[in-house]
Design goal:
alpha/beta, Rossmann fold, eight-stranded mixed beta sheet, about 20% strand, binds S-adenosylmethionine
């Protein structure tokens, strides 16, 4: 396992994923009944953008750095959530934790031994959060459905460094739909080689989702070689999410585009 999210925290892909995540959480908190979130690839929860790792790549400057400076009103809630934990920068666990009520639960999985340990220490004091130093795909079968909670969300955010990552995602999705069919799914993917996104969309349909919503943001032209952007595919998406999220996506595109990128929300059809 070579991937460490500390080098990439706050980049354009994080911004898209986290803005989508926050909007999904806002919908979940609109009802009083409890919800659970499983974050299968959690990272360390919070990042220091001034630290050596983030400084070496500087990716955050063209991501959250630009957004905080431009401060578009369409992203006010997301940027408030980011500012809420300053001087740290929040990863998906911290953004989610900030939205939990007493009745809600957050299940976090992180396989990297050091990062898993950091995460465990960070949330040891919060009884609503359970940290598992284990494989996130296996956890889908082992931890779901959550006890006594009917609603929720599964965020799958792999590093895609393994050659067989898409196969692992495909198996994870099959298990997820079998065990917790009504849960919302948010699956992140890089946009580089389109074969990967097509394969993942196909895997989600094969798992049994009737409808899928793909939200994509590229910040440079797609050349098949470099990561031009990323996408999040949603299963069991909230009602009219594509409409309510459109202004935020437009703002992400307006601020983060380096020329030649695009923003897209699309209902996917089975091939
Ligand atoms: C893209 S990062 C996660 C970022 C995090 N979701 C966020 O938005 O802040 C992917 C993480 O998955 C971890 N990881 C890789 N393979 C895993 C697996 N099979 N199960 C659980 N974690 C894994 C990596 O160590 C890395 O920390």
């Amino acid at each position: 396992m070579n991937y460490r999210h500390a080098y990439h925290a706050g980049n354009h892909a994080d911004a898209l994923k986290h803005a989508v995540l926050l909007a999904l959480l806002q919908r979940l908190t609109a009802k009083p009944s409890p919800f659970a979130v499983l974050d299968t690839h959690a990272g360390i929860g919070c990042y220091d953008l001034g630290a050596d790792e983030a400084s070496r790549t500087g990716e955050w400057r063209d991501g959250i750095g630009r957004l905080l400076e431009a401060d578009p009103p369409e992203l006010a809630d997301y940027l408030a959530a980011v500012r809420g934990v300053a001087p740290s920068y929040p990863g998906s666990p911290e953004l989610t934790r900030a939205m939990l009520r007493d009745q809600d639960r957050l299940l976090l999985c992180e396989l990297h031994p050091d990062d898993g340990e950091t995460l465990k220490r960070r949330y040891a004091h919060d009884p609503r959060v359970a940290v598992h130093r284990r494989d996130g795909y296996e956890a889908i079968g082992a931890l779901l459905p959550p006890k006594a909670i009917g609603r929720g969300l599964v965020l799958i955010d792999p590093p895609y460094e393994r050659g067989d990552e898409a196969d692992a995602v495909a198996r994870g999705l099959q298990t997820l739909v079998a065990r917790w069919p009504h849960a919302q799914l948010a699956l992140w993917y890089p946009i580089k080689d389109r074969a990967l996104s097509w394969r993942l969309h196909e895997a989600a349909f094969a798992a049994g989702y009737e409808k899928l919503l793909a939200i994509e943001l590229t910040v440079s032209p797609e050349d098949g070689l470099h990561m031009a952007g990323s996408g999040v595919v949603l299963g069991n998406a909230p009602y009219e999410f594509e409409k309510t999220f459109a202004p935020a996506l437009g703002a992400l595109h307006a601020v983060l585009d380096r020329g030649g990128g695009h923003a897209r929300v699309a209902h996917l059809a089975r091939a």
